[in-house]
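User: Predict the structure for this protein chain, please.
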Amino acid sequence: MTDSKVHDIKVLNELIMTTLDSAEGYSEAAKDAENPTFKSLFAQWAQERDQVVRELQGQVRSLGGQPETAGSLLGSAHRVFLNIRDSLSKGDKGVIAEVERGEDYIKAKYEEALDDDELSVQVRPALDRAYDSVIQGHDQARDLKRRLQLS
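Assistant: Here is the predicted structure, written as structure tokens:
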């Protein structure tokens, strides 16, 4: 396997772990949220992140690698999302604030990968599609937080 493929697989697997942490965080938020609208929204976002994970895992397989299948239990995104449970006592605003912090984290991880000059052109389309999904989730969380602050 070439050094380029090894690097691509490493970067993709790091993003897979971060995205799995994000999906798990949303699943936990969906279980813990009291507002049915937020339960549904968080469950939907978890499914969207799971889809991103599947696409990135497929990309790793196409490179001849073994994709990650579990998040990093000690990862920063996971710790941020675990704070959601603690934020429930603060109501919906606290939960949404934690969700947005998690979104800021995952967005930064994807931007770091996109700025990686060693990443091959072969994986960039999959990474671009995944990033588009992350940006959409980030912007939805940001907008939701703003709406709650205005209410």
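Residues 85 and 116 are 34 Å apart (CA to CA).
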